């Protein structure tokens, strides 16, 4: 059974956008044309692929099964077509990366300008998410995550600093006021609801602390509120050392228990292990490795 590639792409766009108008914007065609494409695909396959209401559009069980097989297949088709890019003087196209906010803030600023200068015909699109993400289902070419959050079937390439540290700090006036005991602590909570404990290590000694929070903010971009609150004298903040370093250098924050700051391995660029990589992704992988 042969299906029109444009119709398949339209179906995927509608599901990702959760509506025909959004799918039309992604496909750069009219909403009526997208609706016709999905209807044509359903007629050809003989099954309903989407449940439609006045407010939402969601895949049926058959539609979900098709989507799961279709997304990686369409990516492979796109990658095969991208092989032609290898015959250009400079690769071109769009590279979509899914990264945590920490990488957005601490890793990519040192890479993106130089990559853009080396490959001016590649458009880099970055989506920041801190949770577990299926990069293909999210419509991305690759992602950046830490080792414990990588899927086993992915190719992983080190990117950014290979060793990082968590740091604990507070404003000088706060430390002068509160001393060493009964601290106010500014905590981070992930989208999953988890609020990781503060970990410390010195030599072979390790310590986990789960302090009562005086402020809770969502991990990621909202972590800057915890930093600002710490600078304002509200309490202790525990975060990536690189995130806090400008404020440590300026004296707005002072290190706390510095000899106990734990080290951990840096992040990885990861992507599906397939033979044909889109030319923009291949260029980025080679650039990072170099």
Q: Which short descriptors sum up this protein?
A:
six-stranded mixed β-sheet, 3 domains, five-stranded mixed β-sheet, Arc Repressor Mutant, subunit A, D-Maltodextrin-Binding Protein, domain 2, 290 residues, alpha/beta, 15 strands, elongated
Shape: elongated
- Provide mean pLDDT, rounded: 87
Structural class: alpha/beta
Give the second-level CATH assignment, the architecture of the largest domain.
3-Layer(aba) Sandwich
Q: In which range does the helix fraction lie?
A: 25-40%
Largest sheet: 6 strands, mixed
User: How many extended strands?
Assistant: 15
Uncertain runs: none
**Could you name the CATH topology of the largest domain?**
D-Maltodextrin-Binding Protein, domain 2
In N-to-C order, the SSE pattern is: HHHEEHEHHEEEEHEEEEHEHEEEH
Give the N-terminus to C-terminus distance in angstroms: 45 Å
The number of helical segments is: 10
- Our count of domains comes out at 3
**Beta-sheet strand percentage?**
25-35%
The first-level CATH class of the largest domain is given as Alpha Beta
Radius of gyration: 23 Å
Please characterize this protein's 3D structure.
The chain is α/β, with parallel strands linked by helices and 290 residues long. It contains ten helices and 15 strands. It has helices at residues 5-17, 20-27, 31-45, 61-82, 101-106, 112-118, 172-178, 223-231, 241-250, 279-289; strands at residues 50-52, 57-59, 93-99, 122-128, 142-145, 154-158, 163-170, 185-189, 198-202, 205-209, 213-218, 236-240, 254-255, 263-265, 268-272. The strands form four sheets. Strands 7, 8, 11, 12, 13 and 14 form a six-stranded mixed β-sheet that branches. A five-stranded mixed β-sheet has the order 4-3-5-15-6.
């Amino acid at each position: 059974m042969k299906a029109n590639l444009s119709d398949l792409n339209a179906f995927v766009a509608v599901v990702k956008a959760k509506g025909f108008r959004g799918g039309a914007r992604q496909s750069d065609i009219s909403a009526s044309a997208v609706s016709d494409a999905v209807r044509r695909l359903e007629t050809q396959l003989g099954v309903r692929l989407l449940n439609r209401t006045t407010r939402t559009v969601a895949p049926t069980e058959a539609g979900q099964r098709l989507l799961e097989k279709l997304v990686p297949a369409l990516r492979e088709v796109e990658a095969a077509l991208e092989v032609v890019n290898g015959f250009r003087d400079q690769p071109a196209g769009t590279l979509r990366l899914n990264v945590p906010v920490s990488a957005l803030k601490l890793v990519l600023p040192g890479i993106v300008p130089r990559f853009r200068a080396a490959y001016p015909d590649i458009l880099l699109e970055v989506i920041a998410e801190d949770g577990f993400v299926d990069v293909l289902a999210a419509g991305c070419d690759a992602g950046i995550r830490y080792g414990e959050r990588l899927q086993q079937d992915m190719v992983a390439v080190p990117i950014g600093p290979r060793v990082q540290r968590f740091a604990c700090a507070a404003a000088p006036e706060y430390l002068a006021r509160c001393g060493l005991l009964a601290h106010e602590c500014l905590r981070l909570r992930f989208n999953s609801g988890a609020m990781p404990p503060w970990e410390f290590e010195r030599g072979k000694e390790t310590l986990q602390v789960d302090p009562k929070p005086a402020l809770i903010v969502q991990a990621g971009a909202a972590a800057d509120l915890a930093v600002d609150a710490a600078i304002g004298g509200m309490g202790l903040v525990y975060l990536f050392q690189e995130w806090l370093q400008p404020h440590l250098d300026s004296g707005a924050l002072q290190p706390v228990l510095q000899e106990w700051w734990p080290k951990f391995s840096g992040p990885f660029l990861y992507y599906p292990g397939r033979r044909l990589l889109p030319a923009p992704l291949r260029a980025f992988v080679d650039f990072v490795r170099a």
